[in-house]
Specification:
252 residues; alpha/beta; Nucleotidyltransferase, domain 5; two-stranded antiparallel sheet; globular
């Protein structure tokens, strides 16, 4: 088993080394958008961008960007990619995949209003987790609906799915905010990118982000690496589009 894991890590490390494309793994954070960046022939770097548009503009058109935020919002009901993600993760990590807001909820000015809108449409209230990231969902949605072609280089990911695939199909055992959960995710990161986490943290000193945000951005980078190499899976119906033309796919 260990031999198999080492071969897998070696293949991924080789893939990283032969990359000719700028790759960006992104997670939302209190300060905006935390990006872990892999540029050809250069050390990893990390930066917090204030807006999503600023982040995208910082990289050439050939760059691939993976972001932990829902892309494509349904009029009613769940997206197939969410259902697939929950089934893939199983308990207890499936709870990290919560229903995304309905498109009509984007205009809500309060949690109570968002719940009223969703209840009117499908008889359910909106989760507080989804409402908590509503401004960031709105931000990415505004960008992509105004530039649909950007979907060719911007993909939705979910860190728990990335970590599970990275871990040979085994979902993380512990919550990411707990010490044991942080340790098991860091172990995976350091096997592929050894001695990179602490230098990036030093460079981010003073920025408004949480330790698990950095781990999640690394998970996004892992998946965007697979996407760029043609190794990624796509959960959901690859033909599915929302009412604005956005694909509803999670890349793993």
């Amino acid at each position: 088993m260990l031999s198999h894991l080492r071969k897998g890590w070696a293949r991924l490390r080789k893939a990283v080394n032969r990359s000719k494309t700028t790759l960006v793994g992104v997670d939302g954070c209190h300060g905006g958008w935390l990006a872990v960046i892999e540029r050809p022939g250069r050390p990893l770097s990390a930066r917090v961008y204030t807006t999503f548009a600023e982040l995208v503009a910082a990289f050439p058109g050939s760059a691939r960007i993976a972001v932990d935020i829902p892309i494509g919002l349904p009029v009613k009901g769940p997206r197939q990619c969410e259902l697939d993600a929950r089934q893939r993760l199983g308990r207890p990590r499936m709870s990290s995949v919560f229903p995304v807001p309905l498109r009509a909820c984007l205009k809500a000015m309060s949690y109570e209003e968002a719940c009223r809108i969703r209840f009117r449409i499908e008889g359910k209230k909106m989760s507080k987790q989804a409402y908590g990231i509503l401004p960031k969902i709105w931000e990415v949605d505004c960008y992509l609906t105004s530039q649909l072609a950007a979907q060719r280089r911007i993909a939705e990911v979910h860190p728990e799915l990335s970590f599970a695939a990275w871990n040979e199909g085994g979902a993380m055992e512990y919550n990411k905010k707990k010490p044991d959960g942080s340790a098991e995710r860091r172990t995976l990161i350091e096997r592929l990118w050894p001695d990179q986490i602490n230098p990036l943290r030093e460079g981010l000193r003073g920025k408004d982000y949480a330790p698990d945000d950095l781990h999640d951005a690394f998970a996004a980078l892992w998946s965007v690496r697979r996407w760029a190499e043609g190794m990624a899976e796509e959960l959901g119906d690859w033909k599915a589009r929302d009412g604005k033309g956005l694909r509803m796919i999670i890349v793993v």
